[in-house]
Each structure stands twice: as C-alpha cells, then as structure tokens.
Amino acid sequence: MENKESPSSPGKAAPSALRSMAKAEGGSTQIAPIIMGSNNTIQLPISINMTQTMMPNTEKSLSHLKSIHREELQRRCASLFEYSSWLVQCKPSTSKNFTEPWLTEGEMGPASHTHEALEAFYQLHQRNSNRTIKLADIFHPRPTEQPESTRIRVVVTKGIAGIGKTVCTDWLVHSWACGSSLTQFDFIFPLPFQKLSLLPAGHLYSLINLLMLYFPHLHCFEQVMASPNRCLFILDGLDECQLPLEFTSCPEHSSVLEPASPACLVVNLIRGSLLPRASVWITSRPVALGCLPSCHIDRITEIQGFLDSQIEEFFNRRLGNCGDKIIAILKKQKTLFNMCYIPAFCWLLAIIFERSPKTTEEECMPKNVTEVYTIFFMLAVAYQHHRSDGNQRSVEDAKDLLWSNSTNIQNLSRMAYNGLRFQKMFFSPQDLEDYNLNGSGLYQGLVKEFVSENNGPFCQKAYSFVHLTVQEYLAALFVLIDCSVPHKRSLFSLHKELCLGRSVPKGLFSAFKKACEDAIQSPVGHLDLFLRFLCGLAMESNQCLLQGLLGDYEEEPSVASQIAKYIHEALEKNLAPERCLNLLHCLGELRDNSLVEKIKDFMANGSLSSRSLSSAEYSALAFVLETSDEALDVFSLNPYVSVPDGLRRLSPVAKLYRSLQ
C-alpha cells in the first residue's frame, strides 16, 4: 500500500492510516481503519468497551482534579477570616479555633423595625421557636423526611453583620476539603458576591470561563460539569452584591458554554435553569433578602450568634489560661456581655485584651460599648505607626499620635459618617480620593481592601470598614471631632444645621438632638448604634482618651447630663417600643441607670404590680426583662392589659417568652 497525496487536498500530508470517523452511542470517539489506494474506501468500525477502557481514565482524571481542588481550598481557608488580621500576632487556625455559632432553621419573615444587632439579641432568647440545625447538616433533610423524596437544592443562611456568615462558609469549605463535611459533594465552588460584583462591567462569561477565573488550578471543567448534582456553589454576602439580580426580567440561560453577564449566571443558578441538579448556598444580612423569590429557596437558616457556652469556648480558645478570668469579669459587665452573642464583638474584645493586657484587670476593663470601640480605635492608630516605623506602640502612645494624624482621621470618619447617612458600606478608590485619603490614611485595623489589582480578572480595588459597627463608631466620632473644633464651619448635616460659634457641649448637644430625631424616625433603626456611640462619646472618660483629636478646650461635663435629661423626656413621648429600648441603651452608655434601678427596686420589694407606671418606666421594665438572666418561660399580660401604652412598650420583650398568659 503506497502513500499518495489526497487529490482533493493538494500540498497537504496524506491521511493517516487511522482516522476518527464517527461518534459512539455513549459519546466517545470511534476509531476506524481506512484502506487507501483504491477508488473505494472501506470503513471497518471497531467497537470499544467504554466501561473497561475510557471510564477508568475519566474517573482517575476526576479524582485527580478533586484532590487538587481540595488541597487548594484547604490552603485558602486554612486561617479563619479576621476583620483586622494585622492586629493579631498570628492568624487563627480554622481547624483549631473555629467556634460554631447557634444555627436555626427559620423563615424569610417580614422586614424588621429594629437595628439588626438588637433584633438578633431578641431572637437569641427565642430558643424554642425554631429548630436547631448543625452547620454541616444544612443540605440534609429533616429526620422526619425521606432523603429520596426530599432534595434541598438552594439554602439561604441569614444573619446580621458580624454574626459569622463568612467564617461559617470558610469553616465548612475547609471541613469539606479535609473530607469531614458535605461529603455528598465532589466539588465546592465559593463565589463571594463581593468579588463577583467587581468583575469588569459589560464583560460576558460562560459559567465554565467564570469558574476558570476563580479556580485556575482546575483545567477540565467539562468533566466536572458532567456530574453537576455533585457540585455546590457558595454565594457568600448577598448584601454586598452590586450585580442587578432581576429575577423577573432576566432571560433563561441553561448552557455552561454560552456567555452571559455574571448577574444572569447567578440568577439562573439560583432559579435552577443553569445546572438544575447543582446545589446553591447563599448567605446574606436579613435586609438584603427581599430580592430573592421564595419559590426558589428550599431552606432558610439563620445564624443566631453565640450562646453563653459558646462565648466561653471562644475566649478560652483565643485567650488560653486568661479565658476563665476574662469571662468572669465580663459577666459582671452586663452591657458588654450582652453584646458578646455577636462573634465579631468577641473578636473585638479579644484584640483589646491581647494588645492591651492591663484591660483584663477588672478596674481597667471597658465599662460600656463605646469605650470598647474607643480603645480598639486607639490600638488601630498605634498599630499603623508601629507598622510604618518598626517601633512597638501602646494605647498610651496613640494619644500622642492622634494630633499628628487628626486630618486623616477626620477624613476617614467623615467618609464613615456620610456612608452611614446613605447606607453605603463599600467605597471605591475614587471615593477615597474625594475624601483626601491615601494608603497612609487607611488604618488597616479599621479599613480592609478586599480586592487587589493583580488578583486574576479583577481590575478594581474596593474598600470597606472592617465591620459595620466600626463604621457607626467612626461616624459618631466624626460628629464629636467636628463639634469640638471652635470657630469652624461644621460638616455635621443631618439637618444642615451649623454649630458655628457654639461651645463644645452646646454644639454636641445640638448635634445629638438632631441625630436622636433621625434615629427615632428611622423605620429600620439603622441609626440606633450610631446614637448609642454618640452618647458614649459625650462621656469624659472617652474624651480623655481622644483628647488629641478634640482641640484645646475645657471640658464641661454638663453635656452628658443634658443628653440624659433629653432622653428621659423623649421616653415619655409616643415612640416605637424598639426606639425606646435603644434610648435606654443610650442611657447605659451615659452611665445613667436611674430608671432601670427604680424598676429593679419595685420588683425586689414586690410592689411592681400595684404601681401605676409611666411610659418611660414601662420601657425600663422591658429593658430589665430583656437583660434578665432568669428563664423566660411564661409572661403574664394581666397586669398590663388595662394600660395600652404599657402593653405596647412591653411587646418587644413579650416575644422572648415561651408562652403568654
């Protein structure tokens, strides 16, 4: 048999003795020998047993890809997410330092009228209202359901800022990579909304190309997509999403190879049009869940935060031998301990105790929430200079650094304040430029950069404060700084009113009244913590720490008493019960516990039921019941039925009880 040029293809090499001619029934390629040299081409197809030859290679390839993917995700999630990793000595290990929060199965629910931090505190006490569920079991059917007939495809986990959503996703991914959890999945793909939102505008991607950008170590996605029922997509941080997720107008898209916008891919993954057999896990703050149609969700779970036992576990793991001592002191500081259900607040306290050891002594421990954030702020300022000049700095050193950094701090706090006004949590490089902030003006303990210019497909940087409450604190700090500088046009503009020419206390009191009016009128309570911080910053103890920012002036302590008197008067007005409770928290920041102590005395001597309480006293009663250590079993409505306003003010607390009478 001689080799000849093909007449139809002059100049090209002769065909090989073996040529692919057809596709087998199972999708593989048939190899058929062709006899050349005559006018007739004789095809002799050969059957190939795919089970014996091709399948083992495919399985081996998939197994190899799975192993590579596990190793990569194990590396990425080896350390727990830290809001400010620069302030810790070493990053905590995921496998050794994770404390699982309390997770329940719940419902979407209506929009809340309470600041999410306070709402979560109320829900933490409703321990029998929803079924507790383990984090590793979120895709498992209930014990009463048949696994064969019940498939949970889309799970939504909601929780307030700082409650541990990202930490939980990182831990579960790490646990899967180690072979401990979610073993029903061969591949898990974490796709944070934070990063998806920063893909270049207008670019189209196929799902496979998008995954290649985030997981370049996987080079055969066609094989991975061949078994989509073994894949889990984790979409963390819906509240951080800047993509237009329009479920009503977004076109159907079902091909993993055809390009579409990232928003279209996400919508169709959730809908089930794209990879209908794949599973999806979405995390979000409650406020952002309105864009998700409930018809596409199979299970709602909620991270409720730390129970008392988990708070103890966290501090013992983090602080070692000092843990028990810290917990004992914290339990005496009810204001602080009641905030420890938020893991981020526990982390904040742990940073303070680690970096400023004297605060672990009972007499030096912060007395209220504002003081905690003030010390944390000072540590961040001190660290910034330790990082730049190589010298170790303390909180005391930070006092001297405040004056030299006052311009940067004021610009940063102004950005926090304006962001809070417009409910903006993410800032672009242009935003930073508008506020005259550069790299040296970004305190790494306070601000995080979550996208790098050189990170794969991302061509943008984005910034946020390390936690929403840090932004709220800095917003209140901006008001204090702005009101403290004499003969200066004020930038405080909740109502565009100036503090021009006023003394500091009068200016701060005026600013507080305006802030209080706005906080009271807020339907969702988004200014509640801001107001609480503003009250705390009126205290001399915090202003002494911040002296370098406040200019040279003589402190007039009457401003705190003025604010306290204003709050007492406001509590007698017709306000929403949730706003009243927050005003009592504000009094706590001012160390005015007179109303609360009066109610405790009534309860102690048994005269509460026989007394005619004022509106403010009913709110104080609600506050006492809310922060009580006693079991919340039965709440008797009888003493309050005849007083409509009293019953209304007790309503936020009544729902904490297991039953009402």
Task: Describe, in plain words, how this protein is organized in 3D.
It is a single chain. The chain is α/β, with parallel strands linked by helices. Among the domains are: 16-48, no CATH class; 58-78 and 100-204 and 231-249 and 279-305, 3-Layer(aba) Sandwich (Rossmann fold); 593-660, no CATH class. It has 25 helices and 15 strands. A seven-stranded mixed beta sheet has the order 5-4-10-6-9-8-7, with helices on both faces. The chain has a three-stranded antiparallel beta sheet with strand order 1-2-3, with no helix packed on it. A three-stranded antiparallel beta sheet has the order 11-13-12. A hairpin with a 6-residue loop joins strand 2 (29-35) and strand 3. The chain is globular and about 75 Å long. The N and C termini lie far apart (101 Å). Residues 1-56 and 487-505 have low confidence and may be disordered.
Quick synopsis:
This protein is of the alpha/beta class. It has helices at 54-76, 94-97, 116-124, 165-177, 193-196, 207-214, 221-224, 262-271, 308-319, 323-332, 334-337, 343-355, 369-389, 395-404, 406-421, 429-434, 468-484, 504-521, 528-537, 540-545, 558-571, 577-589, 594-604, 615-626, 644-654, and strands spanning 18-23, 29-35, 42-43, 102-106, 131-132, 154-158, 187-190, 231-235, 279-284, 299-305, 426-427, 447-449, 463-465, 634-635, 659-660. Among the domains are: 16-48, no CATH class; 58-78 and 100-204 and 231-249 and 279-305, Rossmann fold (3-Layer(aba) Sandwich); 593-660, no CATH class.
